[in-house]
Task: structure prediction
Amino acid sequence: MQAVRFLLFLSLFFTLPAFAAKKKTTAKADVPPQQITHYHLDDPHTKAGFDDFYNAEYDAAIKEFEIALQAHPNDPFAVNHLLTGIMFREMYRIGALDSELYAKEGFLHSKQFPTDPKVSEQVNTLSQRALRLEDERLDKNKDDIDALYSRGVTRGLKSTWMALVQKAWFSALRNVVGARHDHERVLELDPSYTDSKMIVGMHLYVVGSLSWEAKVAASIVGLSGSREKGIQHLYEAANAGGEVSVDAKIALALFLRREQRYSEAITIVQGLSASYPKNFLMALELANLYNAYGKGPEAIAAYRKLVKEAEAGQFPSDAHVENAWYGLGEALRGQHQFAEAAIAYEKVLTFPKSDPDLRLRAQLGAGEMYDAMEKRDDAVKCYKAVLADAGDSPHAEVAKKYLKQPFRM
Result:
């Protein structure tokens, strides 16, 4: 079960907006002409929708995608675009898109995110609609490249929702395998269909990163892997300039971070952040990368700049600025600036809608900083506050430990 969860949470989270805009392809002689028109390559509403999407302006993106779908109601790509916007708006709202969240083992055992039931219904309805349209085309022509590609995207999005939001691991696994197999088939039919290399590349990397036992489990469901080949696929998808170029860059940056190839990841995220200046998460990821790279002063400057820009209205009003404050606390802590770190941690607590687990970590961090400054009374208050809210979580155990014996760096 643990191996399955690990495989899913990586592969599904990094099936970022695979958002599926079609690519012109030249069919092989034995493949009939494709049935799907490439309407949105020049469609102003789809283009505007993706620009809004990558700037995290999800309401505006959804409106544009809805207009495009009204004009092309039988195109599964248009359905996937709208599905993507609705899914990621909700995941952004509940704080499920912060990469730091998935760097922690506790994610595998955490509860479902509190999602809006109406959104869950929309996700299910749109997923079923897209799959019906794709399967109808594949019933007529099993080698319909665009339909195969679109179905792989739908399956990937559906499994992402099942695993990350609903924590329905085994229900998601079937869609994970199906998404990869669909896109592998696309590449067999047309190796130049570079967009398909994103999902395939992510899965190659994830499976290649597993332990031997987990790789055996993955092989049972038909998944092989190679970290090197996975990264190569992602670089190809990112550099091809296709419709998933941005998504491939996001996934590539996250995997490069895991490989500790920080300078490459920073270069990619710097470019993305410059292209989409309203995207809070991209700017946050750049600061996180500096911190992970051990560049404390650069990280502190990046977090402070992020907080300042958020306060000035640079980002959408629903940006989770508390995550930047927590990151700032972590970076200051690493530079032994304990007083300022405690202030940053406590700033997290001023955001009433912040994630409960983040609040506990911030409260615990503040207590540790007060202990580091030998302000024992203030530290004890923080630890008691953690115990009052943490229940039987691991944070409560840490707080109990430090109530008995002060934290030491």
